[in-house]
């Protein structure tokens, strides 16, 4: 069955847009991508979309946000807003997962392995900041594949 | 620090997705006491070692109210805390009892004005911010079983609802809906207006 989850994309997008330049300026290695290397998210099959979304939200909640604390109070507040929105949305996606409406195929499992390998290939702060800076890649992909 | 008492009567006022923290002032004769506020979302509690995040607009403020709306922007459980500061002296933190989730906000009916512009039935709705949609119901008086509905995702000041029959009376009411928390307000009071009578003259 389908997995339909209502989420405040507008709020997350607004929060990210407010800090995007600041976050991306902290990422010196612009030639490398965590989410898009070697293949873009857009290549993911529609049947794998729910699983990839759930796993990516888990990736951000478990691994990324906690390593993105900055000296800038405004940036920290926006990161908190995004992190708590991700947590709330991941919980809803988790319900789909439990009801078997969010199956993980071979391709999505492979794609996630690649993302984790890209992430672990950098030191944790650089990897976290780069991943946060690539949030628009994830949001664009989610909006296109709605 | 124990000399300066922690703020008391800490509470959150939340109406129509606008959230405010308030507390009682700490009185020290002849002195100006200042306050600092911090928040903690579910993410901070469960994934960031229970860290707290300061709200800069409410750091070292003399006010006893703080606007939380920008920071409470996810549908999770939040905690808030405030402390008093006088020079280098700081009180203990006063923390909200229980948690606050924005889904608990109270939603009031929208302010609307029904307008008969000749044969046109219009409605004016007060803008309530980006989180709000409006569900407008309208019907011809006496035909309550044939109610029509219009859902407005963005509010322009005046909305055209219908073309009315000459001299007939039409009624309107509306409620708000907030998708982020999936809740609606109660309906506004019903307002009825009469369409302009027919002015056409028949020459016999």
Automatic annotation (TrEMBL), chain A:
A GO CC annotation given for this chain: extracellular space
One function term, GO molecular function aspect: cytokine activity
Disulfide bridge map: 3-96, 50-102, 51-104
Alphabetical keyword list: Cytokine, Disulfide bond, Secreted, Signal
Subcellular location: Secreted
Function of the molecule: Immune regulatory cytokine.
Family: Belongs to the IL-10 family.
Protein name: Interleukin family protein
Organism annotation: Melospiza melodia
Gene, per the UniProt record: Il20
Location of this fragment in the whole protein: 31 to 176 of 176
């Amino acid at each position: 069955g389908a997995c339909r989850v209502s989420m405040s994309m507008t709020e997350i997008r607004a929060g990210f847009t407010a800090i995007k330049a600041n976050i991306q300026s902290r990422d010196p290695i612009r030639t490398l991508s965590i989410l898009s290397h070697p293949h873009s998210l857009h290549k993911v099959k529609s049947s794998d979309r729910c699983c990839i979304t759930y796993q990516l939200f888990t990736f951000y909640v478990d691994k990324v946000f906690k390593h993105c604390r900055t000296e800038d109070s405004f940036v920290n507040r926006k990161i908190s807003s995004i992190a708590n929105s991700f947590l709330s949305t991941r919980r809803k996606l988790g319900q789909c997962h439990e009801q078997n409406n969010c199956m993980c195929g071979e391709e999505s499992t492979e794609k996630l392995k690649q993302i984790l390998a890209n992430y672990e290939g950098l030191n944790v702060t650089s990897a976290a900041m780069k991943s946060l800076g690539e949030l628009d890649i994830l949001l664009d992909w989610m909006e296109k594949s709605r | 620090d124990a000399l300066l008492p922690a703020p008391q009567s800490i509470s959150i006022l939340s109406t129509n997705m606008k959230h405010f923290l308030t507390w009682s002032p700490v009185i020290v004769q002849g002195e100006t006491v200042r306050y600092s506020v911090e928040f903690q979302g579910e993410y901070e509690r469960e994934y960031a070692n229970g860290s707290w995040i300061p709200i800069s607009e409410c750091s070292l403020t003399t006010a006893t109210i703080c606007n939380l709306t920008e920071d409470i922007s996810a549908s999770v459980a939040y905690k808030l805390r405030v402390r008093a500061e006088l020079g280098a002296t700081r009180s203990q933190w006063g923390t909200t009892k229980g948690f606050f989730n924005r889904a608990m906000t109270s939603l009031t009916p929208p302010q609307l004005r029904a307008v008969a512009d000749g044969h046109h039935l219009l409605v004016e709705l007060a803008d309530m911010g980006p989180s709000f949609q409006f569900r407008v119901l309208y019907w011809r008086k006496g035909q309550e079983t044939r109610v029509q509905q219009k859902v407005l995702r963005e509010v322009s000041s005046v909305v055209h609802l219908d073309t009315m029959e000459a001299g007939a009376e039409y009624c309107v009411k509306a409620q708000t809906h907030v998708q982020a928390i999936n809740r609606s307000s109660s309906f506004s009071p019903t307002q009825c207006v009469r369409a302009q009578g027919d002015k056409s003259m028949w020459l016999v």
